[in-house]
Design a protein that fits this description.
- One of its GO terms (cellular component) is plasma membrane.
- It holds the Pfam family Na_sulph_symp.
- Keywords: Ion transport, Membrane, Sodium, Sodium transport, Transmembrane, Transmembrane helix, Transport.
- The protein is built from 13 helices and no strands.
- It is mostly helical and about 325 residues long.
- The chain has a domain of about 230 residues.
- α6 packs antiparallel against α11 and α7 crosses α12.
């Protein structure tokens, strides 16, 4: 079995079903003990999350939610990171961490390209060309010194050298500013890409369906303590959701401060023109992407309705303080 899992010599779905046939045939376990393992509550909880993730991704509901949140929080890097982390954590509460991360990374990548895209590269190229031209002029004037020239030409050359020195000083300052801006952009880019998987892992702790280890813990608890029914979706949520909020805020602050999206300096620094233009462009890109989604269609409304119904049914199945809908069905 390990060989088939590692090499994928057979499709994974086929490999997963092999024990039903091989275990009874080889005398390892009878079918009466093998087959029930495929119909555990935890398996179907995890399957329901996968089906919901497939429906949300198919109709771009996650994209609509993410863009709407980003339009509300703003386009400053720290706020964008917060918006992405909030959306990813919310999705990860109901879907798997991997699915939530895979859904949100393309959106983050598009926003980063609009925030730190072609404009900076064009300006950097233009300024680099200007510096090359200035250095060429300087070299040409140094070469002119080797020849005898008239007094008027020497005076003109001295004036040009003075202007050249001023231009070189200005260009040097501009180059330093550009390097600082580039370093800032690289750090913010890293913060964006790190924040999404971090928030997916944090958000997945809030619910039982958020990540597979939570469901495995529930399954093991029922196996070792069959009479213990303290842990259910509602009790887990009441315990884990407040902690998830705290860790999400701490994670946002840590990532933003570490990578420069939030400055601890008391003195408020003025934004560079490049940064202001980039934020304005990012805001327009987010609005344009949201407009491209068009009006909400029936499929999106249906998926959203069943998503809400899915969450409500999970909470009300067996809330303990009142009888849940599960009490209407005879156990077993």
């Amino acid at each position: 079995m390990a060989f088939f899992w590692c090499t994928e010599a057979l499709p994974l779905a086929v490999t997963a079903m092999l024990p039903i046939v091989l275990f009874p045939f080889m005398g390892i376990l009878p079918s009466s003990k093998v087959c029930p393992q495929y119909f555990l509550d935890t398996n179907f909880l995890f399957l329901s999350g996968l089906l919901m993730a497939a429906a949300i991704e198919e109709w771009n509901l996650h994209r609509r939610i993410a863009l709407k949140v980003l339009m509300l929080v703003g386009v400053q890097p720290a706020r964008l990171i917060l918006g992405m982390m909030m959306t990813t954590a919310f999705l990860s509460m109901w879907l798997s961490n991997t699915a939530s991360t895979a859904m949100m990374l393309p959106i983050a990548n598009a926003i980063l390209k609009s925030l730190f895209g072609e404009k900076f590269n064009e300006e950097k190229g233009t300024k680099a060309n200007n510096m090359n031209l200035i250095f060429c002029l300087s070299a040409a004037m140094q070469e002119n010194r080797l020849h005898s020239v008239s007094t008027e030409l020497q005076l003109l050359t001295a004036i040009e050298e003075k202007e050249l020195a001023e231009k070189l000083e200005i260009s040097s300052d501009m180059h330093k500013d550009m390097e600082k801006e580039r370093e800032y952009q690289n750090r913010v880019w890293k913060a964006f890409l790190i924040s999404i998987p971090y928030s997916a892992s944090i958000g997945g702790t809030a619910t039982l369906t958020g990540t597979a280890p939570n469901l495995i813990l529930l399954g093991q608890l029922k196996s070792f303590f069959p009479g213990c029914d303290v842990v259910n979706f509602g009790s887990w949520f009441v315990f884990a959701f407040p902690l998830m909020i705290i860790f999400l805020i701490l994670g946002w602050l840590w990532i933003s401060i570490l990578h420069g999206a939030i400055s601890l300096s008391c003195r408020r620094k003025k934004k560079s023109d490049i940064r202001v233009d980039a934020e304005a462009k990012a805001k327009e890109v987010i609005k344009e992407d949201y407009r491209k989604l068009g009006p909400t269609i029936f499929a999106e409304k249906a998926v959203f309705f069943f998503f809400c119904l899915f969450a409500i049914l999970l909470f009300t199945r067996d809330p303990k303080f009142i009888p849940g809908w599960a009490s209407a069905f005879t156990p077993g």
